[in-house]
Amino acid sequence: MTGVACSWYSWSVTGAQWQLAAELDAGPEHDAEELAQLTQRLRDELLELDVDAVEPATRGAAPDGAKGLELLAVGGLVVRFAMKANVLRTVVDATVGWLGRQRARSVKLTLDGDTIELTGASSAEQERLIELWVARHADAG
Predict the structure, then answer these.
(1) What is the pLDDT of residue 23?
(2) Which DSSP symbol is given to 68?
(3) For residue 39, what are the contacts with CB-CB under 8 A and spacing of at least 6?
(4) Closest by alpha carbon to 118, among 20, 15, 14, 32?
(5) Tens of pLDDT, residues 53-64
(6) pLDDT for position 70
(7) CB 90 within 8 A of CB 50
């Protein structure tokens, strides 16, 4: 069985709302079905936060014959929320906490072309990188 992760497209700030892309990497011991279950669990937790929406990510149009549909990017979510740094920090903290309780290896978060990879292992270095990443976007909001 091979590891499952999805390829990604960049999401950016639009209007007064941020779109944050989240890409789960479940590792080589999980298949696509298990990745979909992990993604749903993360989505459920993020929906409890002060966000406008958490939707499955798409990879563009489906092949000919699948009229008007888009292909879902397994393991990908798009989180939409008002441009507030405290909401961004809450989403990041919830993702790190979720990782610590799951079997996923990592989650890549991308905002306005800027990506950070989070793992379930808490460390001073990861916390420092998170602080810097959130601060970069807080200045934009």
Answers:
(1) 93
(2) T
(3) 24, 56, 74, 75, 76, 77
(4) 20
(5) 999 987 654 445
(6) 44
(7) yes
Q: Identity (one letter) of the amino acid at 19?
A: Q
Q: What is the mean pLDDT of residues 28-50?
A: 91
d(CA 37, CA 16): 31
User: What is the phi/psi pair of residue 96, to 5°?
Assistant: -65, -45
pLDDT band (50, 70, 90) for residue 26: confident
Kindly report the pTM of this predicted structure. 0.77
Where do the DSSP E strands lie in 9-122? 17-27, 53-61, 70-82, 106-111, 114-119
pLDDT of residue 90: 95
Tell me the backbone φ, ψ of residue 102, rounded to 5 degrees: -115, 180
Q: Which residues of 77-112 are buried (b: 16+ CB within 10 A; e: fewer)?
A: bbbebebebebbbbbbebbbebbeebebbbbbbbbb
Query: What is the SS3 assignment for 10-21?
Result: CCCCECCEEEEE
Look up residue 136 and give its two tokens: 């970069």
- AA identity, residue 33: E
